[in-house]
């Protein structure tokens, strides 16, 4: 894989993350709006039912996912956004690639970010492992420096004892 192709893939993944964040926020506005909640979820936003209420209307939350997929595929289709095209280095986008990209977008920014992190190997686990490795390296270097200092101190003490022993031998040996 050439450097140009890697850069094109990374740029496409970056675009995927940004577009998914924008789409997620736009859909949140719609999904959190009063008329959507009243019509699709059957919930009065001013008087929501309690979770354990037996008279609570049945959830119709499937509309959110379906609407997200339709809008995401529409956006990908209009802008010819096909992540598969860049991954496989094709000249033109394909309908299947646009649909797959739309599904990834509909999955939200968390999914797109996870995909991006997977390609760059920048997952939280990898960052934590690198941090732990760096801590262990620093601790090992610290222990090595401490042991070298202890060794130098022992050498100094040994020299001091040799000198003291030599001076004692000179004093005692000269009188005998």
| Biggest sheet features | none
Structural class: mainly alpha
Beta-strand portion reads under 5%
Unreliable runs, pLDDT <50, ≥5 residues?
none
Q: Find the count of extended strands (DSSP E, 2+ residues).
A: 0
Please write the string of helix (H) and strand (E) elements.
HHHHHHH
Number of helices: 7
Can you walk me through this structure?
The chain has 176 residues and is mostly helical. Helix content is 76%, strand content 0%. The protein is built from 7 helices and no strands. It has helices at 3-31, 34-40, 62-79, 83-87, 95-106, 109-120, 124-173. Helix 1 crosses helix 5 (95-106), helix 1 runs antiparallel to helix 6 (109-120) and helix 3 (62-79) packs across helix 5. The longest helix has 50 residues, at 124-173. The termini are far apart. The relative contact order is 0.09. The mean pLDDT is 80.
What does this entry show, briefly?
With 176 residues, the chain is an all-alpha fold. The chain has helices at 3-31, 34-40, 62-79, 83-87, 95-106, 109-120, 124-173. The chain is elongated, with a radius of gyration of 34 Å.
What is the fold's blueprint, element by element?
Layout: H1 3-31, H2 34-40, H3 62-79, H4 83-87, H5 95-106, H6 109-120, H7 124-173
Entry keywords:
176 residues; mainly alpha
